[in-house]
Write a structure and sequence with these properties.
The protein is an alpha+beta fold. It contains nine helices and eight strands. The protein has a four-stranded antiparallel beta sheet. It has a four-stranded antiparallel beta sheet with strand order 2-7-4-5.
């Protein structure tokens, strides 16, 4: 798993062996069973997670309805940065949709590492930039695209979501009801 974490980091910056060693040293492996949670609403979140393999779902509860906001496929990193930086309880829930192997580190250890190795800051700047762009593009899609266009973009840009995620979570992620997703899929199928 450590080798995968090193490879993941190399996508964002060229780090020295010493930097890679220091980075991987702050992480501890954990496993999350299918349907268990990494964290739940109202938990204090102070960690960052590297998802090696498996699938996690991020969601919020609103009036006893789950609203899916993202799917995390390994390899990736994630946390609730708002909760970490504000030092307030999270509003997010993160659940394993498949057995997931992760590594976890204290965010404060990561901050210390960035202070000790300034090159590390560029890794996280590029990663956060990537996440920011993803979020803005998703926001624009909700403003400008029809539900069918959102589904087609998801199908083309994130085919693993369409093939591996239950339909009820996909419909929530697209901001539509499950029956609307079924109608969209039937309409597309008929057009083919």
């Amino acid at each position: 798993m450590t080798d995968n974490l090193r490879f993941f980091l190399s996508r964002f910056a060229n780090l020295s062996e010493q930097e890679l060693e220091a980075f991987t040293a702050i992480f501890t492996p954990i496993s999350v069973k299918k349907l268990d949670h990494l964290f739940l609403e109202n938990d204090m979140v102070s960690d960052i997670y590297y998802i090696n393999d498996g699938i996690m779902r991020g969601y919020f509860n609103k009036q006893s309805t789950d609203i899916t906001t993202n799917f995390y496929f390994g390899p990736t990193m994630m946390t609730d940065l708002v909760a970490v930086r504000s030092n307030k309880p999270t509003q997010m829930n993160v659940q394993a949709l498949k057995h997931t192997n992760c590594m976890v580190a204290k965010f404060s250890d990561l901050d210390d590492l960035i202070d000790a190795y300034p090159t590390m800051a560029s890794v996280f700047f590029k990663f956060l930039e990537h996440l920011y762009l993803f979020g803005v593009i998703r926001q624009h899609s909700f403003i400008f695209d029809t539900p069918q266009e959102r589904y087609m973009k998801l199908f083309c840009e994130r085919p693993k979501v369409v093939s591996e995620i239950p339909q009820r979570y996909i419909s929530s992620y697209l901001g539509i009801k499950p029956e609307t997703l079924s109608r969209i899929k039937n309409r597309i199928f008929k057009e083919l």
